[in-house]
C-alpha cells in the first residue's frame, strides 16, 4: 500500500467519524482531556487545512494559531462543520495523492521538513484523532493492518518530541502483542480501553 493511499484512507476515516459525530454531542468529553468533541472536530478540520497547505507548499497565514478555530469553520454553525470538514479533507487527500508531493521538503508551520515525514505524521494524526472522536461519540472503529502499522510508526516517531512539547501525554503501557492501532494509541498517550 502506498503512502498516498494510506494518507487518503486516514483522511476518509477521520471524515467518516466527523460525519458520525452529531452536533448535539459537541460538548461531550474525549480521550484528549483538553478537548470536547467540538474541539476535536475543529482540530481534525484544521489538520486537513494544514496538511493541504503543506502539500502545496503554501505559507500559512499569520492569523492561524494552534488554538484557534479552523478558518473555514469560524462563521459556520456547528451542524454545518462536518460538510465543510469533508470538503477540506478531500482537498488535502487530493493534494497528497500526487507522489511528487512526497518528495523534497515542505513545512508544517515552522522550518523545512521532509515532505514524506509530514505526510506520514499527518496520516498517524488523522488515525488516532479519528479513534478519539469515534470512542467519544460511540461509533464503531476499525482500521486495516496497514493503516494501523502506519499510525504506530508515525506516533512512535514523534512521541518523544510531542512529550517534550507537551502535546502528547505519557505513554500508556499496552501489550506488545496488541494490534498496531492499540500500540499507536498507547505510544501517543491514550488508553485503548478509554470510554466516556
UniProtKB/TrEMBL annotation:
Record InterPro entries: CHP03086 (IPR017520), DinB/YfiT-like (IPR034660), Maleyloyr_isom (IPR017517), MDMPI_metal-binding (IPR024344)
Pfam families xrefs: MDMPI_N
GO MF annotation: an example: metal ion binding
Mycothiol-dependent maleylpyruvate isomerase metal-binding domain: residues covered: 15-134
Protein name, entry field: TIGR03086 family protein
The organism's taxonomic lineage, starting at the top: Bacteria, Bacillati, Actinomycetota, Actinomycetes, Pseudonocardiales
Amino acid at each position: 500500500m502506498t503512502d498516498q493511499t494510506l494518507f487518503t484512507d486516514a483522511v476518509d476515516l477521520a471524515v467518516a467519524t466527523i460525519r458520525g459525530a452529531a452536533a448535539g454531542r459537541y460538548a461531550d468529553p474525549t480521550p484528549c482531556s483538553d478537548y470536547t468533541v467540538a474541539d476535536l472536530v475543529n482540530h481534525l478540520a484544521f489538520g486537513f487545512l494544514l496538511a493541504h497547505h503543506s502539500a502545496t507548499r503554501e505559507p500559512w497565514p499569520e492569523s492561524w494559531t494552534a488554538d484557534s478555530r479552523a478558518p473555514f469553520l469560524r462563521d459556520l454553525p456547528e451542524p454545518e462543520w462536518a460538510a465543510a470538514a469533508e470538503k477540506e479533507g478531500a482537498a488535502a487527500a487530493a493534494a497528497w495523492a500526487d507522489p511528487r508531493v512526497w518528495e523534497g521538503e515542505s513545512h508544517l508551520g515552522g522550518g523545512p521538513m521532509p515532505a514524506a515525514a509530514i505526510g506520514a505524521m499527518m496520516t498517524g494524526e488523522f488515525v488516532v484523532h479519528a479513534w478519539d472522536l469515534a470512542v467519544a461519540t460511540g461509533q464503531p472503529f476499525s482500521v486495516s493492518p496497514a493503516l494501523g502499522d502506519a499510525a504506530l510508526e508515525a506516533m512512535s516517531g514523534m512521541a518523544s518530541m510531542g512529550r517534550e512539547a507537551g502535546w502528547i501525554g505519557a505513554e500508556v503501557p499496552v501489550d506488545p502483542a496488541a494490534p498496531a492501532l492499540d500500540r499507536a494509541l498507547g505510544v501517543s498517550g491514550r488508553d485503548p480501553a478509554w470510554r466516556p
